[in-house]
Amino acid sequence: MVKANNDTQLLEFLLLGLSEKVKVQPLIFGLFLSTCLITMFGNLLIILAITSDALLHTPMYFFLSNLSFVDICFTSTTIPKMLWNTWTQSKVISYKECITQIYFLILFAVLDILLLTVMAYDRFVAICQPLHYTFIMNPQLCGLLVLISWIISVLNSLLQSLMVLRLSFCTNIEIPHFFCELNHMVQLACSDTFLNNIVMYFAAVLLCGGPFFGILCSYSKIVSSVCRISSAQGKYKAFSTCVSHLTIVSLFYCTMLGVYLSSAATHNAHSSATASVMYTVITPMLNPFIYSLRNKDMKRALKALFVKGNI
């Protein structure tokens, strides 16, 4: 809830969360705490397994370890505050906290998208140009791709956050969500939001639509290349290296598009908040399982990690 004060630094918003029913709050707290711990532990195991196994020091697993790190950060942006508010029965979030949450949420969401795109390019080179794979995907290029992804994400997040700072808000602001999301904040502003909408949708098209188009192009060439393989075993082996990545891409993009398309069609903020759980909580939690359960190398590395550390 916004206190009637002209100083924006003293503003406070009220996060409505997923449910206002008191009896449901302990269940929500337990579910979110469990998913948060599973996400942290699972992705941390992926990072430890990759760094400790020399056989996994390849571009594909280098990008995967970065993706796991980003997923840990992505979950940490929203869930701890949500758990604290549920535990203390206080739904208030300060203006500074809200802007900070928006900044890091956009940062790690865009970084997730860009890393998935880089991983699609890695699979394209591995399958379509296998003889040149080691030369093309050298350590310098891999590091540069990750660095560029970070730079683009940071600059975009900074721009979006600064655009929110120019807005003014009226009293009694209630955010129909369990975290501060950019489009909700823009909709709830009292000042003119035309420029904010232009920048927001332009960035969405450029940084979501562009990478998605790049992923589609990569996999169209991969499918075309695999179809030219004569043996069925060769086709299966080529496709099997892409299944995990395709699953994560489908989960992330479908849930994110579902959230915004459903909210635009129905204008039901509560349904949008519930659907947002998928790409902010569920998808980061499923990443370690998807990559480890279908990957023999990851299974071997995780088993070695457990044996070595007596986990």
Would you write up a description of this structure?
- With 311 residues, the chain is mainly alpha-helical.
- It contains 10 helices and 3 strands, in the order βααβαααβααααα.
- Strands 2-1-3 form a 3-stranded mixed sheet.
- Helix 2 crosses helix 9, helix 5 packs antiparallel against helix 7 and helix 8 packs antiparallel against helix 9.
- The longest helix is centred in the C-terminal third of the chain and has 35 residues.
- The chain is globular and about 65 Å long.
- It starts with 11 loop residues before the first strand and ends with a helix.
- The N terminus is likely disordered.
Question: Which key terms come to mind for this protein?
Answer:
single chain, 311 residues, mainly alpha, three-stranded mixed β-sheet, 10 helices, 3 strands, 77% helix, globular, disordered N terminus
